[in-house]
Amino acid sequence: MFYKELPDLIYDRNELYSFQDNNPDYQENVHFKKGYSFDTAKECLFFDLPANNAECIQRVIDDNNLDISISDCKFTKVLAGGNMPYHIDPQRAEVLMIPLTDDPAPVVWVDEQDNIIQEHIYRMPTIINAKIKHGVPSVTFDRIFLQMKYK
After folding, report:
1. For residue range 28-75, what is the model confidence (pLDDT) as tens digits?
2. What is the pTM of this model?
3. 3-state class of 66 per DSSP?
4. What's the Cα-to-Cα distance from 140 to each of 37, 61, 88, 145, rounded to whole Å?
5. Cα dihedral 77, 47, 78, 4 in deg (nearest 10)
6. Is the dihedral of CA 53, 5, 106, 110 positive or negative?
7. N or C end of the chain: which has fewer CB within 10 A?
8. What is the DSSP string of 33-46?
9. Spatial separation of the C-alpha atoms in residues 39 and 25, rounded to whole Å
């Protein structure tokens, strides 16, 4: 399985977007800085915002009876012109992705030679397989998501 869409997930997109919008706590992605030796803020325009016990995220967890810890949630932002390098998540097998911007660039899964084997455009909350190499090679419009460690 590459992905599974969740059309019935309950969440307030405007509330989630407002919480992260212009939040000063956004930072470069530390996993890419350690594992791939580059600063995503400079090279990929890719930033993370920890959940920090945000009530709007806890509401998503509670309203959907999810077995997810708020400490396993974060916002991600890839600015127009940036990218999310191909990777395998080090600590997550499945990730619940909730898109907060319209028309996000697609996520692609690739084989060992970086040939695309699957592509998905998020139109609703979606669980993705994070143990298959994936990324977002080209971002035309700002791409903002709430990510939750599902497994």
Report:
1. 777 666 656 666 777 678 888 998 889 999 999 999 999 999 999 999
2. 0.91
3. coil
4. 25, 30, 23, 15
5. -60
6. positive
7. N
8. HHHS-S-HHHHT-E
9. 16
Can you read off the two tokens belonging to residue 137? 């090679």
Which DSSP symbol is given to 67?
-
Question: What gap in Å lies between CA 147 and CA 86, rounded to an integer?
Answer: 17
* β-sheet bridge partners, residue 110: 116
Fold of 3-149: Jelly Rolls (2.60.120)
- Average pLDDT of the chain, as a whole number: 90
What single-letter amino acid sits at 142?
A: D
Contact partners, residue 72, CB within 8 Å, separation at least 6 = 92, 148, 149
Q: Which amino acid is at 66?
A: L
Q: Encode 71-99: b = buried (16+ Cβ within 10 Å), e = exposed.
A: ebbbbbbbbeebbbbeeebeebebbbbbb
Domains of the chain by residue range: 3-149
Selection from 74, 47, 71 nearest residue 143 by Cα: 47
